[in-house]
């Protein structure tokens, strides 16, 4: 099916989602609603995704991570940070990869470079996927809100979501997706600044307008 994101109709048709938790499942619904075909994978095997496939119908295919990555024109990585090493590398080369991750040391274990503020979660994924175009996205919104809190462009108090990337075409893509889902976009800049969007910072899971989000990014502390 064709993508309904303005200006991107002929660029890609399939979204490959690696991770089928709350965020991954919500994004499967979101991208399916935008007219994309979606291939989604989890760590337990395609057969465990039967309910989601039944809900979304023929636009959704349950797959292995390798197959979802290979099928993807655009990919989403939405798995625990401790599992990043399991993300397929070669099939994602040259592709935009949306990264929804946040660092939860209680879940992931302590990572010294993150604890010291020397890198970001998205930079870790970019390091793992050196030939891909990593884009921070959907990390500072709760899963139930993704498909329920968007508003038409120009609506007063329209919610804004943040992003960051070292790649302009990645920013262009996520800006179109956010707008199609009912959100304004604010970029924090390159991946090195993506920490401003993460856990325990002012912008995290807060319902905010674009102006409010810019202000919250500006006042964030590197080590919360």
Descriptors:
224 residues, alpha/beta, 8 strands, 9 helices, globular
3D structure, described in words:
The chain has helices spanning 22-33, 50-56, 65-71, 105-108, 112-115, 121-128, 143-146, 168-181, 210-219; strands at 14-18, 37-41, 60-62, 74-77, 96-99, 133-136, 160-165, 184-187. By secondary structure, it is of the alpha/beta class. The chain has nine helices and eight strands. The longest helix is centred in the C-terminal third of the chain and has 14 residues, at 168-181.
Strand order of the largest sheet: 3-2-1-4-5-6-7-8
| Sheet having the most strands | 8 strands, mixed
Low-confidence stretches: none
Helix content: 25-40%
Distance between the termini: 43 Å
SSE order: EHEHEHEEHHHEHEHEH
How many helical elements? Answer: 9
- Strand element count: 8
Secondary structural class: alpha/beta
Radius of gyration: 16 Å
Strand content: 15-25%
Calculate the mean pLDDT score and round it: 93
């Amino acid at each position: 099916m064709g993508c309904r994101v303005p200006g991107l109709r002929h660029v890609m048709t399939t979204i490959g989602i690696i991770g089928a938790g709350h965020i991954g499942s919500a994004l499967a619904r979101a991208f399916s609603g935008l007219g994309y075909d979606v291939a989604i994978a989890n760590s337990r095997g395609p057969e465990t995704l039967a309910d989601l496939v039944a809900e979304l119908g023929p636009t959704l295919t349950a797959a292995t991570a390798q197959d979802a990555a290979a099928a993807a024109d655009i990919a989403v990585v939405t798995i625990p940070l401790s599992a990043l090493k399991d993300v397929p590398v070669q099939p994602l080369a040259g592709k935009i990869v949306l990264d929804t991750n946040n660092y939860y040391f209680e879940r992931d274990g302590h990572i010294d470079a993150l604890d010291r503020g020397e890198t970001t979660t998205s930079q870790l994924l970019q390091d793992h996927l050196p030939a891909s175009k990593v884009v921070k996205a959907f990390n500072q919104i709760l899963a139930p809100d993704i498909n329920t809190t968007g508003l038409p462009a120009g609506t007063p108090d329209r919610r804004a979501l943040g992003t960051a990337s070292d790649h302009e075409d990645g920013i262009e893509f996520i800006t179109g997706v956010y707008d199609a889902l009912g959100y304004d976009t604010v970029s924090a800049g390159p991946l090195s600044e993506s920490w401003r969007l993460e856990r325990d910072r002012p912008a995290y899971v807060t319902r905010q307008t674009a102006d409010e989000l810019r202000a919250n990014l500006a006042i964030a502390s590197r080590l919360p």
